[in-house]
Amino acid sequence: MRCPFCGSEDTQVKDSRPTDDRAAIRRRRLCPNCAARFTTFERVQLRELTVIKKNGQREPFDRDKLARSIHVALRKRPVEPERVERVINSIVRQLESSGETDIPSELIGELVMEALASLDQVAYVRFASVYRNFREAKDFGEFIGRIGNTVDGDD
């Protein structure tokens, strides 16, 4: 593992332990070149996934990009980081265990929407505003009206 501080490729593992949800291994590393310490995470990857975007473009699935989009929606919301990590791990497991290697971006968006709806309603609306490409305030109003009907049981 390359040192993020000096670029040396000779780093040493000082401690390894599973994360709280046991979905990854957390490794504390030391660079003998610059004496910097840093942490890495090692995760199981069941298969290589490719995202098929709406325009037909293909790109490798990026767990970090998924995590960033969820964290942006949850910014300044009172949700525990452990719950967020469980949601991200759950979405990745669903994608990997689907049996498909080509994943439409729409499926990923719907999985994120579903997860955020149960995690935090404000984050759900934030994500939906980008995912569904809201252009005007009335788009928010219509969407929130639909959410209210679903929550009230009218839908």
Question: Mind sketching the topology for me?
Answer:
Elements: E1 12-18, E2 24-30, E3 37-43, E4 50-52, E5 58-60, H1 63-73, H2 81-96, E6 102-104, H3 105-119, H4 121-131, H5 137-152
Helix pairs in contact: 1-2, 1-4, 2-3, 3-4
What does this structure look like?
- There is one protein chain.
- By secondary structure, the protein is an alpha+beta fold.
- The chain has two domains: 1-44; 46-150.
- The protein is 45% helix and 19% strand.
- The chain has five helices and six strands, in the order E-E-E-E-E-H-H-E-H-H-H.
- The chain has helices spanning 63-73, 81-96, 105-119, 121-131, 137-152; strands at residues 12-18, 24-30, 37-43, 50-52, 58-60, 102-104.
- The strands form two sheets. Strands 1-2-3 form a three-stranded antiparallel beta sheet, with no helix packed on it.
- Residues 151-155 have low confidence and may be disordered.
